[in-house]
Amino acid sequence: MAEMIPERLPQSATVGEWRMFAMLQRLPDGCLVYQEPAIRNRHPDFVVVAPSLGVLVIEVKGWYPAQVVMADADDVVVQIRDRNQTHKHPSRQVRDDMFRLMDEARRHRFTVQLH
After folding, report:
1. Which residues contact 90 (CB under 8 A, 6 or more apart)?
2. Does pLDDT of 115 surpass 60?
3. What are residue 12's phi and psi, to 5 degrees?
4. Bridge partners of residue 77, in order along the sequence
5. Which of 7, 51, 70, 103 would bridge 77 by S-S if both were Cys, CB 3.0 to 4.6 A apart?
6. Using H for helix, E for strand and C for coil, what is the string for 77-88?
7. How is 2-67 classified by DSSP, letter by letter?
8. CB within 8 A of 47, min separation 6: which ones?
9. What pLDDT sits at residue 105?
10. SS3 76
11. What is the DSSP letter of 75?
12. Close Cβ partners of 88 (under 8 Å, ≥ 6 residues apart)
């Protein structure tokens, strides 16, 4: 079972975040799952560190396909309560978060000792 950080979601988490959290808990031992870690003033929904696979950044959305009015590489327009709302495309969000995370990792020196 994966180690979840923090161990529980806040009560304010969305239904989609609760579902994703439950799925990620079932990852194998050795995996770390961070919920909304701070990465240069951004907070992706989840960052998974899986030693045999790498790092995965996950952004959870609660939109239904029928609500999506338009999408391109940068933005998604969704209709919620008869109003169109423009949001950054989730793929772009996780890509930006991935680069922020990579930049932060480069700022720190890691020493690996092989035995």
Report:
1. 59, 61, 76
2. no
3. -80, -5
4. 70, 86
5. 70
6. EEEECCEEEEEE
7. PEEESSS--TT--HHHHHHHHHHHTSPTT-EEEES--BTTB--SEEEEETTTEEEEE------GGG
8. 33, 34, 37, 39, 55, 56, 57, 58, 97, 101
9. 84
10. strand
11. E
12. 74, 75, 76
DSSP tag of 91: H
CA nearest 24: which of 53, 51, 55, 1?
1
| In the block, residue with structure tokens 């770390």 | 32
- Asked whether the predicted pLDDT for residue 111 surpasses 80, the reply is no
Closest CA to 72 of 61, 87, 62: 87
- What is the share, in percent, of the chain residues with pLDDT greater than 70? 94
